[in-house]
Structure formats: C-alpha cells, structure tokens
Specification:
Length: 404
C-alpha cells in the first residue's frame, strides 16, 4: 500500500505542477518580494521602538504560533471510488497512512521554520531569549504539529463526534499551555513538553486505535482540503475542479437596478451580477480590501503607505481579471447581438469602479495611520493614479493577450 500511495502522490504532484506555473508567475513573485521587503523593514523599525520589558510581546508570539499550527492538514489523497475498491484492503491501510503522515508534515514544517524565524527577533527583544534558542522553539512547534496531525488522523476513523471534539479540545488546551510556558519560562521546557505531548498523542490516537475507518469522512475531509487548495489556485487561473457557489443576496439588488437595461450594458450587467452574487470574486475583493486597510491603519510612513496601498490595488485588480472569462464558454453569450469589444469595455469599467472604491477606502485609512491630511491626500491621489493606470493600460493589454 505504501507503493500505491507513492503512485497516487506522484500523479497528484504532477497535476499540481501544471497550476504552479500560473501561481508563481513573474508579477506575483515581484509583488511578494516587495511586500515581504516592506513588512520586514517596518518590522525592524518596530522592534527598535519596543521596550526591553515588553511583557505582551511573548504572548503575541505564542498566539501567532498557535494560529500557524492550524496550517496544513492530514493528507490522505482519498477519492470517492476508494469507498468501494479499497474497502477490502482496509486492514492494510496502516502502511498507506504512514507514508501519507510523512508527506503531511512537509508543508507545515517548512512554514513553521519561516514563522519561527520571523518572530524570533521579537522574542529576543521582548522575552530576553537568545537567537541560539531558535532550534528549541522550532522542535517544540514541530512536536505540537505532529500531535495535531495525530488528532486529524484520529478523526477519519469510526469514533463518535464527542470523542473527536474531545481530542481537538485536549490538543488545543495542552498546546496553549506549552506555548505560554515556553515563551515565559525556558525554551527547552517547552520543547520537552512538546515532545511529551507528541508521544502521548501517538499512543492515545494511533497506537491504541482499534476501530475501522470512516471512509465517507476520510473522502469528505480530503475533498475539502483539495477545495481549499483549488480556491487559492483559482485566484490566478481557471480551475475546472472547483465549482462556483452562488448566493441570492437580495439586499444587493439595488446595485443591479441602477444599471439601465440597455444593449450597451449587456456584459456589464452580467459581470456585476457575477461579482455581486458569486462567492469567489466578491470574497476575494473584500478580504484584500480589509487586509490592505488594516495594514494602512498601523503605518505611519508616507512612502511605505503609498507603496503598500499601491501593491494591494494591483493585487485586487490582478485577481479580478479572470472574471473576464466567466461567460466565455456559455453558448448563449456567443449569440448576443453585441459587439465583441463591449466585453472588454465592461470588465474595464467594473474593475475600475471596484479599484476606485478600494482607493478611497485606502486613502481614508492612510489618513488615520499617517495623521497628516496633506500626506493622506497625496497618498489618495497616488492610489487614484495607480487605479487609472492599471485599468487603462494593464487591463487593456491583458485582455488583448487573452483574446489572442
């Protein structure tokens, strides 16, 4: 069964690699470098202003570490057909899960290295630790993640929901205690407790497990995991595996009613309707506006506010461009007696309007963060210029490439 998992994993990775070249394109990498560089610069300046006895600094680190531990799930690569064809092999699934457990550790371990390294300077300043203690904190986080994966694996077996909930609560409570002990006492104490937790959870939720698999639950969890992954990829390119969800949102009918029912607004009406009632693009837009506004609220540097706000405007517009192809494969839209150019003008108008709203919101939050009306006005003006340039130049060129 271990070889069977390896073959299934190779097929899965080959499938994912076809999407990764669209995700990690030149624009995305450049924006990430700029964003991480700006955050690192601001983080460095923030550390210089903190007092040496900043008590809450260690608590903040523990809270962020706790959130980061929830990244990464137990990967089974289970498929709906497994409920029928692999059922006779259930007693031999142990080797399969050993390989899947090892693979499930890769992404969380790498992420925890980055998160732990990023927050280590704050621990040094606020908690009085040494950079050499990084390895102790990292081993602790790895142990806590292994324990959580044991709990997740326990959840795909035929145990009651009460026991599943109990295992999750037990992990959460013990993890909070271990994190607080490690950041407020000694790092090696947290490491020891983390390793003890990993051993205990292995015995409780793996070694002594003697019930059968819940095949439906296992397939459901894997499908949910893949759906979250495809949702992220869908921000960059179309993903056939993901199905769009539509919500009525009757309270937003007023926006659609403001569009005059004319032939020249055919595609604009379709795009606005898709934006308002679809969950992917509207959710993406609101999340990016919220995160960008939150960053700008805490920034007091003019140039950094301008740069970060412009980056978020670019990200919002860039992620909305795939909306252009939402009706490309619908037969009825091909029969509409409207010129082909209307489609491009409609998406430009919608993206321009959405970026304009985002630019105004960013300008308000930049004013709160900068506490200077003149600088906030200049920042808002630059946001509007970025919106205009992106809509008229970049979106136009992208549409031409997509048509060709």
């Amino acid at each position: 069964m271990s070889e069977f998992f390896q073959k299934r994993l190779a097929r899965h990775q080959k499938h994912m690699m076809r999407y990764m070249r669209y995700v990690f394109n030149d624009h995305f990498v450049l924006v990430c470098l700029f964003l991480f560089g700006g955050v690192g610069f601001y983080y460095s300046n923030l550390l210089k202003t903190l007092p040496e006895d900043f008590f809450w600094g260690s608590g903040i680190v523990a809270f962020v570490w706790l959130l980061s531990l929830y990244s990464g799930s137990f990967v089974t690569l289970a498929e709906p057909a497994d409920m029928v064809f692999l059922l006779p092999k259930e007693n031999k699934m142990t080797d399969y899960f050993k390989r899947s457990f090892t693979y499930s550790c890769i992404f969380p371990f790498v992420l925890l290295v980055l998160v732990c390294g990023f927050l280590m300077p704050l621990l040094v300043v606020a908690g009085g630790f040494q950079f050499s203690e990084f390895i102790w904190f990292l081993l602790m986080l790895w142990s806590l993640k292994i324990s959580q994966l044991h709990v997740q694996r326990y959840g795909i077996y035929q145990v009651t929901n009460a026991k599943k909930k109990q295992s999750q609560i037990l992990w959460l409570l013990t993890t909070i205690v271990i994190l607080l002990v490690s950041v407020y006492t000694f790092s090696w104490v947290g490491t020891g407790l983390g390793l003890l937790q990993a051993v205990c959870f292995y015995i409780l939720y793996w070694k002594r497990l003697s019930v059968g698999l819940d095949w439906e639950e296992m397939v459901k969890k894997e499908q949910n995991r893949l759906h979250r992954l495809y949702q992220f990829i869908n921000l960059f390119t179309d993903v056939p595996e993901i199905t769009a969800t539509v919500k009525r949102r009757k309270y937003l009918d007023g926006l659609l009613n403001k569009l005059s029912i004319q032939q020249k607004n055919t595609y604009l009406y379709l795009y606005v309707r898709r934006m308002v009632r679809g969950s992917e693009f509207s959710g993406l837009y609101l999340r990016l506006v919220f995160i960008g506004s939150l960053f700008l609220y805490f920034l007091n540097s003019f140039w950094f506010s301008v740069g970060l706000g412009s980056v978020f405007l670019y990200l919002i517009g860039f992620q909305l461009i795939p909306l252009y192809n939402q009706f490309h494969y619908m037969v009825l839209t091909q029969l509409y007696p409207v010129p082909k150019e209307q489609k491009g003008r409609a998406i430009q108008s919608l993206i321009g309007l959405l970026l304009l709203v985002a630019a105004v919101i960013f300008g308000l939050f930049a004013w709160i963060g900068l506490k200077n009306v003149q600088q906030a006005g200049m920042a808002a003006g630059i946001y509007l210029l970025v919106t205009l340039a992106f809509t008229k130049l970049y979106v136009s060129s992208r549409i031409k490439k997509m048509e060709n």
